[in-house]
Amino acid sequence: MSTINNRFRRLRSGAVIRDLTAETTLSVKDLIYPIFVIEGTGITEEIESMPGIFRYSADRLDPLITRVTEAGISSVLLFGIPEKKDAVGSESCNPDGVLAQAIRRIKELSPELLVIADICLCEYTDHGHCGLVDGEHILNDETLPLLGKMAVTAVRAGADMVAPSDMMDGDVTVIRHALDEEGYEQTPIMGYSAKFASGYYSPFRDAAESAPGFGDRRSYQMDIRNGREAIRELNNDIEMGADIIMVKPALAYLDIVKEARNRFLHPIAVYNVSGEYAMVKAAARAGYIDEERIIMENMIAMKRAGADIIITYHALEVAEYLS
Fold it and tell me: Beta partners for 137?
């Protein structure tokens, strides 16, 4: 007679029982698909460092939004890329600018699709930083009113949610106040609460044309060595009124996600960022990995760590795999 008491393999013996006893589930409704919208007309251009991801002019969004909605994805996150950039990111608050045009077009195409507007100046400034600058110093308090104004502009255009990614201290408070003053008390804020100064963002900066013109973003984005500070940042966004908190990037920071899940009751989002996407694509194209298996393993890892929401460039692929 066997002396083995615990036979874990009993619950792994077939697909049905594995599904029955699975601790973590993934749904297409967990996904947010990021979209880059560029000013102009007739533009659909692939981003070289992000195979399969494109920049679209607003008039070219129709087929993409059809794919998104038919896939069952319920939310998109928009990044606007204007033709004209200046030191104060004026186009970020233009009611007829690239972001507002894209929001209006998407809401015309799919009124039920949840449209989230990224709120940050980096795509709109000629220096590429997320705030106003004085020489090579990034100004915090002087930037905040512009973020509030940008959020109001996006919501007036039809955005259902705003997501400040700037990492300026006090941003959620100022945006919440600006929205409330304009009668948008019901518009939620998803804070980029613990956003690390990561090397995983490089392809995004190609896509959004937002690489900093001098220095880097380490004076306002989080030090990659700090975990306890990330919890303070997450808690601070909650205290300021964020409805959803976020950890960015995702895969290298799942310890932060797990700790956040143990501490907070708020919905937690993760951003599966451009560099994480690009590495999977590069390895798959080289034949080193099974692309579908790795993508789904990454998605499950994020959910298992405690994420409720996954922002990912793989969203359309994941939706296909799940179907």
Answer: 134
Helix, strand, coil proportions of the chain in percent (round to 5)?
A: 45, 20, 40
Rg (CA), the chain: 20
Give the torsion through C-alpha atoms of 102, 105, 109, 115, to 10 deg.
Answer: 40
Q: In the structure, what pLDDT confidence band is assigned to residue 21 with cuts at 50, 70 and 90?
A: very high
Letter string b/e over residues 205-232, b meaning 16 or more CB atoms within 10 A of that residue's CB = bbbbebebeeeebeebbbebeeeeebbe
Where would I find the beta strands (DSSP E) of 110-196?
Answer: 114-119, 132-134, 137-139, 161-164, 190-195
- Is position 85 annotated as part of the catalytic site? no
Active site residue 195: yes
Distance CA 171, CA 140 (A): 9
DSSP designation for 283? H
Two tokens, residue 267: 């919905």
- The values of phi and psi at residue 104, to 5°, are -60, -40
**Does the structure show a pLDDT above 80 at 1?**
no
d(CA 186, CA 189): 10
Work out the angle at residue 121's Cα, subtended by the Cα atoms of residues 105 and 216, and round it to the nearest 5 degrees. Answer: 135
pTM of the model: 0.96
Phi, psi angle pair for 202, to nearest 5°: -55, -45
Three-class secondary structure of residue 96 per DSSP: coil
Q: Can you tell me the distance from the alpha carbon of 300 to that of 146, in angstroms, rounded to the nearest whole number?
A: 37
Q: Comparing C-alpha atoms, which of 4, 213, 5 is closest to residue 122?
A: 213
Per-residue pLDDT at 112: 97
Cβ 276 vs Cβ 284: under 8 Å: no
Determine the Cα–Cα distance for residues 141 and 130; give it in Å rounded to an integer. Answer: 12
- pLDDT at residue 3, as a whole number: 80
Question: Could you give the CA distance from residue 151 to residue 162 in angstroms, rounded to a whole number?
Answer: 6
Active-site residue (options: 248, 258, 281, 303): 248
Out of 29, 107, 149, 195, the active site residue is: 195
